[in-house]
Write a structure and sequence with these properties.
Blueprint: H1 2-26, H2 28-35, H3 41-68, H4 73-97, E1 100-101, H5 105-111, E2 119-124, E3 133-136, E4 143-148, H6 151-154, H7 157-172, H8 175-196, H9 198-234, H10 237-249, H11 269-276
Parallel strand pairs: 2-4
Antiparallel strand pairs: 1-2, 3-4
Helix pairs in contact: 1-3, 3-4, 4-8, 7-9, 7-10, 8-9, 9-10, 10-11
Length: 282
């Protein structure tokens, strides 16, 4: 039975991996033209498979473990607990999947004292992802800030420190754990309904997913504003505003939320910049 569950999850996830690889290959011309990367399709496919492979193995193993737990609330608790463990281990998986490295002496000097004790910095190979910076980890001493290599050449000193401070703000306010808990509550509720009333589970998921997605996006946007405020206090609002505009100019971030802004995880760029201008470091 456990093998059957793991196999079913693997079969379900494989098309997702195939789509992710296709999307990554479709972005190769963009990254060549806009970012100036000397990037081959073979490399892009290999990096995507490497990253998704780490996640796929973790999901399959988790499904097998959960299948061993008796149905009902014990299975819900096991799923939520495994999710928390996965959240704690995410930085270590990303170190491998994103081909990261420790910063050089010059890069560490550029960041300055923005990183508090216990928060570590890893530099990401630009070619393995399209983003710019993010925070991961919930265990004290194993909290990480990830920056792509090109940020060190794209942003000036204050702008770079402001971006780092924004990601540190996510750790300072416990946003990484908060975001996991929101998803865990929803997943636990779905598993609970499936255990008690299997026939109603699909209907409950279909009806509950849209409002949950809207609520989750609203909460995440609020955490982004809190991280902006933290960076403004630490480095200065103007520095982060300049950094956001520079990143938008280089197409590292979107200039606006598009037609579905209520599902966007970041506030509109203009709103963020306007709120940051004039805020001085405390």
């Amino acid at each position: 039975a456990v093998a059957g569950v793991a196999a079913a999850v693997a079969v379900y996830a494989l098309p997702v991996v195939a789509v992710a690889v296709a999307v990554r290959l479709a972005t190769v011309p963009y990254r060549r033209a806009v970012r100036g990367f000397r990037l081959r399709y073979r490399d892009a496919a290999a990096w995507e498979l490497e990253r998704d492979g780490v996640g796929l193995v973790g999901v399959v193993l988790a499904a097998g473990v959960i299948a061993l737990v008796p149905a009902g609330w014990p299975r819900v608790v096991a799923a939520v607990g495994l999710g928390l463990v996965a959240t704690a281990l995410t930085p270590f998986a990303l170190v491998v999947a994103l081909r990261t490295r420790w910063p050089t002496d010059d890069e560490r000097a550029a960041v300055g004292d923005t990183l508090p004790a216990g928060v570590r910095l890893r530099v990401v190979d630009d070619r393995t992802r399209l983003g710019s910076a993010f925070a991961a980890g919930v265990v004290p001493g194993a909290e990480y800030v990830f920056l792509t290599e090109s940020l060190f050449a794209t942003l000036d000193g204050d702008e770079l420190r402001a971006v780092v401070a924004h990601e540190v703000g996510h750790h300072a306010h416990g946003h990484v754990l908060l975001r996991y808990l929101l998803v865990a509550v929803a997943a636990g509720a779905a598993l609970g309904v499936a255990s008690v009333a299997p026939d109603a589970a699909l209907v409950a998921v279909l009806l509950g997913t849209p409002p949950f997605a809207v609520a989750l996006a609203a909460v995440v946007r609020r955490t982004e504003r809190q991280a902006d405020a933290y960076a403004a206090e630490a480095v200065g609002g103007a520095a982060l505003a300049d950094a956001l505009e520079t990143l938008a100019e280089h197409r590292y971030i979107a200039a606006d939320g598009g037609p579905a802004r209520w599902l966007a995880y970041h506030p509109p760029l203009g709103e963020r910049v306007e709120g940051l201008r004039g805020r001085r470091a405390g």
